[in-house]
Target: SET domain-containing protein
Amino acid sequence: MAAYSRGKIAKQRISPKREAEFMCRSGLDCDALKVELINRRIGYGVFATQNFPKGSFLVEYVGERIVPKEAEEREKKRKIKHTSYMFYFKWNGLKCIDATNTERKGKYIKDEEVGSPLNNCVMRLLVTENYPRLCLFANRDIKAGEELRYDYGEANLPWRQIHLMIIHLMITHLMSTRTVRRTMKKLLILKQRVKKKLMMIPTLHPPMEGTFHSVD
Ligand SMILES: C[S@@+](CC[C@H](N)C(=O)[O-])C[C@H]1O[C@@H](n2cnc3c(N)ncnc32)[C@H](O)[C@@H]1O
Model:
């Protein structure tokens, strides 16, 4: 946003909270966020097309506000089993936002555990005029081209287990190749030592002709 100050245009940033309220009321998503297909298994993800400084409002998780019982019923009837767009939160009791039937960008943002370098935003509950909204804010500077990822807040998500398995396999593989490498190195040193020792032993020539003395 720009404001006139002493005849010059000075940049005046509104607070992320006010920006969030403004964007939520407008019913629009930020143009600088792009929904892109990652692959058929993972589905879509959301990418920044401009830099976002830490604290910036990014997007609202838009959907139908329903009670948990209704959410449970819908989950049972859900046709696509591997993906859920239900987001549970606490506000005057447990509530849920079901984003299944919307094409707004918030629902396409993927999960990433807090502590991972790929985790770059955080979901916050924003209550304006007694109306709860779920909003994502940058928890560090985000560069253009980065994928947005926040912690869904659940520990046993299947893709996290896959990551753990891959890390485990990589460590085991690294360890085994390192052990093999170390053994090879040791064998090489041993071979060189043996060779050196062999060199020190006088060469055993066959007795030369004419110099042979029989002991008999
Ligand atoms: C709220 S949706 C996110 C958007 C989803 N990718 C899509 O195209 O609809 C949650 C689903 O995305 C996938 N997902 C989210 N985070 C993921 C991650 N870190 N790795 C792999 N798949 C993930 C899972 O299938 C999950 O059920």
The first strand starts at residue 2 and ends at 5. The radius of gyration is 33 Å.
